[in-house]
Here is the input.
Amino acid sequence: MAVTDTNATERVEPEPAAAQDPSVSPVVDHGPVALHSPVPRVAHHVSAPSTDDQVDRGPRGIKLAKISKTGDRVFRALASTSGLAMVLIVLFVGIFLLALALPSLRADQDNFFTSRNWTVAGNQLRFGIAGMLWTTVLSSVLAMAMAVPVAVGVALCLTQYLHKRAAGPISFVVDLLAAVPSIIFGLWGLIVLGPFLAPAAQWLSNTIGWIPLFSKSVDPKGSVFVASVVLAIMILPIVMAISRDVFAQTPRDHIEAALALGATRWEVIRTAVLPHGRSGVISASMLGLGRALGETIAVMIILTTPAAGSPFSPSIFAGGETFASKIANNAAEFDSPSKTGAYIAAGLVLFLITFVVNAMARVIAERGGAKS
Amino acid sequence: MSVTTSDSQLSFARPGGGRTVKNALATVFVTLATVLAVIPLFWVLITVITKGIRLILTSTWWLQSQRGITPRRQGGGAYHAIVGTVEMALICAAIAVPLGIMGAILLIEYAKGTKVARGVSFMVDILSGIPSIVAALFIYALFITIFGLGRSAIAVSLSLVLLMLPVVLRATEEMLKLVPQELREASYALGVPKWKTILKVVIPTAFSGIVTGVMLGLARVMGETAPLLILVSYAVGINFSPTSDTMGALPTMINSGRDQPPQMPGYERVWAAALTLIIIVMLLNLLARAIARASRLKEK
Here is the structure.
């Protein structure tokens, strides 16, 4: 990385050198070229022949000190190192997790992707991620399904309906929601929201319980349902903030054109604001999804861990374990390498999933940005 | 929206029934969404404040630890946890802030528009999406499994660096973008080398924004729980040493007492710890916003 970096900037250097000729007359404005050029050096070269041995004189007789390049070199090296550090950190996360997970994955007697077992103590390793994958994806997708419409609604309200003065405080309140630590959401979800939602969950599973997704379960309090409501609250500020920003950038002309054609406010939104903000909203939703997939402590506190060997329930009113909550729940038991390796394998899968989701969010945002 | 009023004056045919209904429905939906979005913050805040306010108003809460205090006993404070939380966050900041600022300088001052900048920027996006539990597992894998070191508060700080870095870097980057190009050019024209220009002109101009970013980053890492669970054990006593394997922290203080029934004195302490954590994090956030606001006003 560092090598390409120096090459890239070294290539810029000839520009100021080529611009040496016009720089003889100091009146000429070099514009952006002067940016990269260490000015004294150019002046130095030019003035050398004209004023015999007074090397340090600039074009107008201004004394220019010789400037050492060491400081610049050191500073650039520092900046490049920290850039390199970012790249290495992400690569190392993948590499080290994989390296430590591989031995356990090799020793795994079950299929890693389809098994629901989690026997990691002793010599016989039997573990798979099917159960965790289901709970993680179910809770996150449910959270996204709840958060995105609300976030888009709020963003529309703030940008298209409310006056700036009214929008400010509401924006502020939703933004502050992002500052609440997840453990507090977890505690609140467990003690306050869970009991509050229990009757609704009960009613839902009584009426449409014949659908497996809503079937009855033993303990409706620590359910995926409650966890995803809390997750939805947690990702709401991110999705809202990004949607608000893209909606606010809708070209004024588009809005006014729609209004001039007699569109109602909703039609303005549908024909001008939403099409403009679509890629932004999708990208924001993906970012929110990424957050929800990796959320640890709130989910861990809320979800009831099913007893080992209990039958699989696809219901949102059942408990379960996500990748993150499983790892955090068992953090105290990382004693043997094979056991730790199994948990690290689960962490690796989580890393890969969030990597893909976040990369997609970025690609979508970039494409949208390029289009507009 | 002056256009709307003139529109209604001009309209010869009012929008048909179906369109008006749709428009009204949209308004209702948008209003409902906003109300719904505002509720959680107040609900959470009111819950935490009403349940925790009594304890944090006592001086023992801020001056004593939980050493020797069982869930059945009254008393004790959160001093040990506050010390741990602040200490780990500061160690993390000491590493993450210079790295983040230098990274932003690379992206804006040295490699702007190049492939290097794109690559690094992509990695920063990925880094900001890494779940805290994965960051913790990574440090566990690196320091504890591979290097053979024990669990420690420093390990926690290192994993928090992964979470704080992108916040600081992005905030700094945004501010560096706003520094007027003329300032840099003026400095170059005076013969100031690039690195000195960055240090003495660019960074001071962007300083308030960088401070905002650092405070938001601190607020984020102080509330993280997952790395604490994996990389350090919760200690009920006061401990200043970052290398020891136990250290108190507000999130783990909440986590360790969360199962207590409401009639126990320990139950109230959990909520008081939650309130303490919220106060610290919110203060940092509000302060960061105030700084950002003040500097924006000054620019105008």
